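Incident review: delayed structure delivery

Summary: a single-chain prediction request sat in the queue longer than the usual turnaround. Root cause was a stuck worker, restarted by the on-call engineer. No data loss occurred. The affected request and its eventual output are reproduced below so the record is complete for anyone auditing the incident later.

Affected input:
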Amino acid sequence: MKDLMRSPIGFFVLTVNKGLHGRVLLGFLALALIAGQVEAVTINEIRIDQPGADNSEYFELAGDAGESLANVWYVVLGDTGAGTSGANGFGNSGVVEAAVDLSGFSIPADGFFLAVENSFQNGAGEIFEGIVADISASFSFENNDNVTHLLVRDFTGATGNDLDTNDDGTLDSTPWSSVLDGVGLLETPAPSASGEEWLYAVALGGSNIGPNDTSVPNYVFRDPNGTGAFRIGEPTLTLGEVLDTPGVANVTPPVIENADFNGDSIVDAADYTIWRDNLGNPGGPGDANGIDGVTAADYAIWKAQFGTNPNGAGALIATSSTNVPEPSSLVLLGLAGLFGLSQVCCRRRAGY
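Output delivered after worker restart:
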C-alpha cells in the first residue's frame, strides 16, 4: 500500500505492507506528525527598544491556528548587564536574560500569537491603541548590544543561568530538548574586550540580523510572515505613524535602495569599498536594500546608482569615461559560495 502523507516540512511517499504492521507503522507516524506540529511555530516579529522608556517591548509568533505552545519557552541570551568582561576578555556571554513560559497557550485563529511587556502601551491615545495581547509578562529586553532570541521546547533553566561559562561563543549547557526558532540581533560582528557578547543563533540553526547602521536593530520582522528572512524595521515609534504590526500579519514595506553607504551624497568607489569589506555580513554598511544582509544584489544596486545621489537633491551623473569597479575574482568566488549557502539555508526550517 502506498500512501502520500504530509509532514511539517513537506510531502513524502510512504510504502508499507497491508495488514497489522502497516497500520501500526502508520499509527506511529501519525503520532509523530502530531507531536511535531508545534515545531512549525516561528518567531515573526520583535521590538526590543523605542525612544524614551521601553514600555512597549513585545514578541510575536507565527504558526498554524490552534497549534499548541505546550512546553514552549521564549528565551533570550545576553550578558549579566553589569558591563563587565567575562572569561577570555569577552563579555559575560550566554546568560539567560529572559525566559517566558508559553505553556497553556496556543496559536490564535489568525495565526499570530502576541506576547507583550506588562507596561505595553495599548490604551486610548497610546502608541499601540487597541492592540490586544495573548499574554503579558515581564521580560525587559536588552537593547544595547548583541542578544540572541530563542524559541525552545522543555526549558529547564532559569533567568540568570550562565550557559556559556567560559565565554568562548559555544554553549556549555543547553537546558532544552530542542530549538524551534531563533534570531541573533547583532550590534558588533565579533566580540571584543569591550564587553560585547557572543551570538548563538547560527550555531543553533538560526540566523543573525544587523547591525542597523552601527546599532543593534530595535525592531525586526519576517518577510513573508512565518517563513521569510528577518528584515530590519523602523527603529522609532511615533504616534500615528507606527509601522509595527504586533498581533497581525507583517506588512512588506517598500524597498528603499540606497548605495551611498558613507552618506556623502554620491555613490562612488568609496561606497564600493564599504560593500566589498562587508560582503557576507547579515546587515549594516554595504546593505543597499535592507534585505538578506550584504550580498551581490547590493553590488548591483551600487553599480546602477554609481555617480548619482540616491538621497534625492542634486543628483550627480557619472561621465561616460567613469569606470565602474568590478568585483575581483576572489570576491566573485565568495559571492558564489554565499549564494550556494543561501540556497541550502532556504531549504532548511529555521530552528534557532
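Verification: The chain has a mean pLDDT of 79.
Action items: add queue-age alerting; document worker restart procedure.
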